Each structure stands twice: as structure tokens, then as C-alpha cells.
TrEMBL record, chains A, B:
EC number: 3.1.2.2
Pfam families, alphabetized: 4HBT (PF03061)
Membrane topology: Peripheral membrane protein
Name of the protein this chain belongs to: Acyl-coenzyme A thioesterase THEM4
Organism encoding this protein: Nocardioides dubius
Gene3D superfamilies: Hotdog Thioesterase (3.10.129.10)
Family: Belongs to the THEM4/THEM5 thioesterase family.
Subcellular compartments: Cell projection, Ruffle membrane; Cytoplasm; Membrane
Catalyzed chemical reaction(s): dodecanoyl-CoA + H2O = dodecanoate + CoA + H(+); octanoyl-CoA + H2O = octanoate + CoA + H(+); tetradecanoyl-CoA + H2O = tetradecanoate + CoA + H(+); (9Z)-octadecenoyl-CoA + H2O = (9Z)-octadecenoate + CoA + H(+)
Assigned keywords, A-Z: Apoptosis, Cell membrane, Cell projection, Cytoplasm, Fatty acid metabolism, Hydrolase, Lipid metabolism, Membrane, Transit peptide
Chain ranges of the Thioesterase domain: 128-200
Primary location: membrane
Record flagged with keyword Transit peptide: yes
Enzyme class, broadest EC rank: hydrolase
């Protein structure tokens, strides 16, 4: 990637779009993203011959060309409207437009945050198991979200310590994160990852409230 | 995913394929994977209208149907031949057939291991920055590989502690991991992640040699 193409840090795009129009746009893109996710998984598992590969590539390039006729540059960033809505559909863990994201789906609970996802072929590390790095990603994302909700603003990861307790088999998994202690703008967050085999990994992290989101007296 | 479809743990597939045939197969699939990666990124950045989205989806589904006419189930797992070659092309960090992988590319160095990757729109967390979980993934993967090389066999992550030092902007990044100390089958591995801004994150991890890869006297 050349320097000119480097994504803009802290990219923020303001759009004049109503909540209803945004919901329509989301409904337009989510099915495409799901189909790209399926394609990623099928490409891993496919054993078709070279003629089929060549034909599939023609279609992939055709889709690429169509979608590429009007594109933003760099990365999605954070989009906002003047009603206070914000959407980061490019997020690598949860993004509605990002086929790298499993996606992690947040489920409302009273105590902290819960994320669910179904990890298929695209997330493999040790054979048949979730990549240890994806385990870290889930724990980080869920913990950061728990701190965000507690602090009422975005947080950054300071440190994260992960204990891998047993292999995490591919398939459905659940993360549960909660703030254990808070001092001023710093949050100690614990998180577990579980499958039907029980808790497979756990973490403890220190998350720090973004400076601009702090109240003056707490700075 | 139903229980019957759950990927097989420790999946290992033995194939009667020569090294030359394997190289041909790799050359067949890598360009397709790269095109799927491009498609993932373009889907995030695309701003085309609903007619174009519908047309692109037709092509994506056509590619899906072609690749899906002959597929393995579950996940890729570890493939081996009787010449001692092993390939895990589904790996979420490095896999030749996996468009979720950036991919991380290993570069030979004398001291430990070095991985390079160029992180585009698919890996975003904070706007314009690499997702903190992907930072963890890279540190975990590079550290595990360093332990693998030192121990001459696969290792599992025991614990991993990550310090996030400054934002990691999207774009080119380099990981460098090295074994600091070794006691029997346990390795303490340090790793740094750097961009043109300098070191952005570092980790210390304990990695444990797979039981079956240990020498009897070390067990």
C-alpha cells in the first residue's frame, strides 16, 4: 500500500442520512456481506478442478468490478449523522460490511456484555480449533465493549493477559465480559470464552477511557 | 452449525500427492484467494447503488455455486503427504486458501521469526487503526511460530500478556518474535509489532510444546 493510500487515522465521515434510510442501507449490504463470508469459507473447503476455479474467478472479478465502480478509499472509519447515530460497519469483529468479521453478535444481558458467534473454517488455527489469536481478538473486543458501556465512551486496551485453558473447537462460542474494578478512567475487565466444552480461555485486561470522552474533573 | 457439521478436532488428511503437484495446486488456489480478499475489502468500501449490489450478488452466488460443487466438510485441518510435507492452507493468519488471513508472510531471519503483512480495510478496529484483537492475533501467531521452531514441534499458547503502546495505523506492519528462555518443554517468547510509527505493541507469552512432540526423556 503506498503512503497516499494509507487509511486516515481517526477517520470520521458525517453523512446526512436519517435513521430509516440507514436501516435500509444496512438491509441492502448485510446479505451481500453474508454471501461473501460464505464464499470465503467455501473457497477454503472447495476441491473443484482448475476449470471450475477459472470460472469462479471470472465471477469473483465481475463482482469486484461492479462493487469497485464507486468506492471510498482507505478504510470505512466511523460514520455519524446529525441525529447522534454512529456506525462502524468495517469493524473486523462486528462489521456489517466486513466479511472478515464472523461476525460477533452482542446479546443484551444485565451483567456486562455477551457476544455470540459461530466460528467456521475461516477461523482455524490448530486443526479443527479456533486460532489462538482469534480467541484473543474476541476477549479483547468483548472486554473493550464492557469498559465502553461502563465508562460511557470508547476505551483503548492498555494491557491484556490471556490464559488458554483448553482447546477451543470450531463451532458456536460465547464471550462474557464484565468490569471488575474501576478507578477514575481505568477499568479492569475480566472475560471468559466458552464452548459446549466449558470455559476454554479467560482474560484480564486494563482498559483506558479515551481522553476526549472523559469528564473534565476526571482528567 | 449443527453438531454433525462441527469440524473434526485434530483433523488430519493424508493425500497421495507429490511436492510438484502440491505446488501446482497452490498456484491454482492462491490467485483465487487473493481475489476473494480484494472482494472482501471492496465490499467494505463500496458505495454503489442497490441495482449494482444486486448484480454483484448474482456473481458472488454464481462463484459460490461453482466452488461448492465439490467441498470438504468442517474445516481444512492439517493435510500431509507421505514425503513428510504438511500444509494447513485454512489457517486464519497465514492460510493460502483463507481470505480472512491478511495473510501474514514469514520472512527468514537469523534471530527468531519475522512476519510481514499489509493491513487494509478488513482489519479495522478504532477508525483507521488495526483492531486490537488483530494485534493480539499477530503477536500470538508469531510467538507460537518462534516457539515451534525452537522446540522443533507445534506448541500451544499457555498465557499471553500484551501491552498496547500506541495506536497501530492500518498499512504495513512487522512482527518480530524470539524465544527468551526455555525450560524443558516450556518457552517464554517475546514479540513486538511495529509500523512506520515505531513499536506499537509488545507481548510476552508462555508456549508449551505439544505432548506428542516431546522427546520421551523430556516428558
Amino acid at each position: 500500500m503506498s503512503n497516499e493510500q494509507r487509511p486516515v487515522w481517526h477517520k470520521r465521515v458525517t453523512e446526512a442520512i436519517s435513521a430509516d434510510e440507514l436501516a435500509e442501507r444496512e438491509a441492502l449490504w448485510v446479505p451481500l456481506t453474508e454471501e461473501v463470508r460464505e464464499l470465503v469459507s467455501t473457497a477454503i473447503l472447495s476441491e473443484v478442478d482448475e476449470h471450475a476455479v477459472a470460472l469462479a474467478r471470472q465471477h469473483i472479478r465481475a463482482a469486484q468490478e461492479i462493487l469497485g465502480t464507486k468506492v471510498d478509499t482507505g478504510s470505512f472509519g466511523m460514520h455519524v449523522n446529525d441525529e447522534g447515530l454512529a456506525w462502524n460497519w468495517g469493524n473486523a469483529a462486528t462489521g456489517q460490511k466486513n466479511a472478515v468479521a464472523p461476525p460477533l453478535c452482542q446479546v443484551p444481558i444485565a451483567d456486562g456484555v455477551r457476544y455470540e458467534a459461530d466460528f467456521g473454517a475461516g477461523y482455524e488455527g490448530p486443526p479443527g480449533c479456533l486460532h489462538g489469536g482469534w480467541i484473543a481478538l474476541i476477549l479483547d473486543h468483548a472486554s473493550g465493549r464492557a469498559a465502553h458501556l461502563e465508562g460511557n465512551g470508547p476505551t483503548f486496551t492498555g494491557t491484556l493477559t490471556i490464559r488458554y485453558l483448553q482447546p477451543t473447537r470450531l463451532g458456536p462460542a460465547v464471550a462474557h465480559a464484565w468490569v471488575e474494578t474501576r478507578t477514575a478512567n481505568k477499568f479492569v475487565v475480566r472475560c471468559t470464552l466458552s464452548t459446549e466444552d466449558g470455559v476454554t480461555a479467560e482474560s484480564e485486561g486494563v482498559f483506558v477511557l479515551a481522553r476526549w470522552a472523559r469528564k473534565p474533573q476526571e482528567d
